[in-house]
Amino acid sequence: MKRTNWFKDAVIYQIYPRSFKDSNHDGFGDIQGIISKLDYLKELGINCVWLSPIYDSPQEDNGYDISNYRDIYKPFGTLEDAKQLINELHKRGIRLVMDLVVNHTSSEHKWFQSVIKDNNSPYKDYYIIRKGKNNGKKPPNNWSGFFGEGAWEKLPGSEDEYYLHLFAKGQPDLNWENPKLRSEIKDMLKFWLDLGVDGFRCDVITLISKKQDFKSRFPKIALTGKDAYVNGPRLHEYLHELYKDVYVNYDTMTVGETVLSTLKQARLLVEPEREELDMVFNFDHTDIDNYFGVKYFYRKFSLRRLKKCVNHWQKGLYQRGWNSLFIENHDQRRSVGRFGTVEEDINSSKCLATTYFLLQGTPFIYQGQEIGMTNAHFSSIEETRDVELANISKVIEKIPFFRRGMKNVALDVSRDNARTPMCWDDSEYAGFSDVEPWIRVNPNKDQINVEKSLKEENSLFHFYQKLIKFRKEEPLVKEGEFHLLSKGSPHIFAYERIGEEEKLVIVSNFSNKERKYKKLKKWDYDDLVFSNYEENSYVHLKPFETRVYKIKK
Ligand code: ISL
Q1: Does the C-beta of 495 come closer than 6 Å to ligand 1?
Q2: Which of 81, 351, 374, 388 could form a disulfide with 546 if both were Cys (CB 3.0 to 4.6 A apart)?
Q3: Does residue 468 line the site of ligand 1, with CB under 6 A?
Q4: CATH no. of 6-107+174-378+419-466
Q5: What percent of the chain is predicted at pLDDT more than 90?
Q6: Is 530 helix (H, G, I), strand (E, B) or coil?
Q7: CA-CA distance, 500 to 511, in Å (whole number)?
Q8: Closest Cα to atom 15, ligand 1: which residue?
Q9: From 61, 203, 328, 496, the catalytic residue
Q10: Which residues of the chain have pLDDT under 70?
Q11: Domain ranges for the chain
């Protein structure tokens, strides 16, 4: 089958299923709930959905711990529901990208269970199991994982063996060195593609190959051993194998969650002739407001740093690969109040929306982002549910220096901020459910909800709708070359998207004060195609004003 690169024309909406819409009164989102809201997504204008995991799972990490790749977690529905979802999406011209979590399984997966029961199980080599040091008293090495703990756990039933888990204890890492395991994964991919799924978002895909020495590494503040387990020696080989044995036969798309990858590494993953992935998510921009890539070490946001980072990726992948564009997902706190925006002024969210949406690449929208949902403002850990926060909190508790300042930071940056139920209306449970949800509803549901956004002409929803339409109709957004204009300004983010005869100019004022921008003299009112203000002054930008010009060169 010919691959059509449809992803270059896609606007992708991420659904976090447990929080999107409950249809069966258990306070937990489900597939039928999603189906009931497809017309809403159609109205927004998106043409692809990325669905966070719905597979069978004990839900220690909200489904990123899979116990059966070919079945659905019952509270979400059945395989029949999943087929119906694919069908209903396709009827509306919307594609479906599933989450692919193959760096690890759940410890409840039958492969891991078989190892626990029988130390000689043929599945033992599906996992990374090593003898501990000092006759098993100490783990095999000093590696630490993503949730603040050591990366090894005693293998249940064994005296001296440990298994590697870069995430929670219930998420043992798979051993990609084993060809049988790779073959199982390929069969599973075909299973979903044959059901009609259009692509995969590949969870922590840069972790699948590990250096095989398994030696201790120089200790770090976080992720000791990462030079051995990120971008490992056989990563490209494995990805190419999946491509040539599976993807090449389908009109599919893959986007890799490439944690800790530099531009140079990302190029090797997405240059089309290498046949590995179609796109990558890089996290440089979400690390702008922290130190050392650790979100608990909060750092004041700087627009200049953001521009530098955007410029780096836009220029760096131009005509070599394809960018993915996002400001939110289920692991990040909400973008409202972040990246130079403020909760009090919806125009600031419009500025941010325009600025990221019209860059080169495929834009993603995370559920609730289109109506400006905010962080949940948790006041205690009891209100949260995330295993990451639970584990990190234990670490913070142990270290007095951290305990003092970091408890509140941890709540502010908790992943649960973006995981509260989608606010559909202002009823008790925000129209998400008619019983108490698995995590509390955002207290500002009366002000920020879908029903209200649909009614108000100037809502963020309608602004996104216009942006999506504009992106679809304007080829320069897809193809134009990126050129940064306002490098030095601490408040203005301006750039061009240059084509052969025309160009787009995108100018946004990321401050709550009027700002003079002299370059505005160069462009004519008549060329203004898009703005969040009805009236625009000559050389002054109003607070959080954003404008798009289309200009003949
Ligand atoms: O969430 C993070 C920081 O708060 C990241 O470090 C995150 O753990 C990392 O990006 C990997 O994320 C993905 O894999 C995890 C899962 O918990 C995340 O939800 C998923 O997006 C393990 O599967």
Answers
A1: no
A2: 351
A3: no
A4: 3.20.20.80
A5: 91
A6: strand
A7: 33
A8: 64
A9: 203
A10: 404-405
A11: 6-107+174-378+419-466, 379-413, 479-552
Separation of 550 CA from ligand 1 center, angstroms? 39
Q: Domain 479-552 belongs to what architecture?
A: Sandwich (2.60)
Q: How far is the CA of 330 from the centre of ligand 1 (A)?
A: 9
426 is catalytic: no
Query: Which ligand 1 atom sits closest to the C-alpha of 329?
Result: 21
Q: Are 153 and 116 within 8 A, CB to CB? A: no
Query: Residue 256 phi/psi, 5° resolution?
Result: -95, 135
Phi and psi, residue 326, nearest 5°: -150, 150
| 165 Cβ inside 6 Å of ligand 1 | no
- Best mutation site among 226, 331, 393 for ligand 1, i.e. most ligand atoms within 8 A of its Cβ? 331
Pairing relationship of beta strands 55-56 and 68-72 according to DSSP bridges: antiparallel
The whole-number pLDDT of residue 219 equals 94
474-480: Cβ within 8 A, 24+ apart: 474/504, 474/550, 475/499, 476/502, 476/503, 476/504, 476/550, 477/358, 477/504, 478/8, 478/9, 478/360, 479/360, 480/360, 480/504
Per DSSP bridges, beta strands 199-202 and 253-257 are parallel
Nearest CA to ligand 1 atom 23: 64
Secondary structure of 403-439 as H, E, C letters: HHHHHHHHHHCCHHHHCCCCCCCCCCCCCCCCCCCCC
For 292-302, the pLDDT digits (tens) are: 998 988 899 99
Shortest-distance Cα residue to atom 8 of ligand 1: 146
In whole numbers, what is the pLDDT of the chain averaged over residues? 96
Quickly count helices (H) and strands (E) in the chain.
15, 22
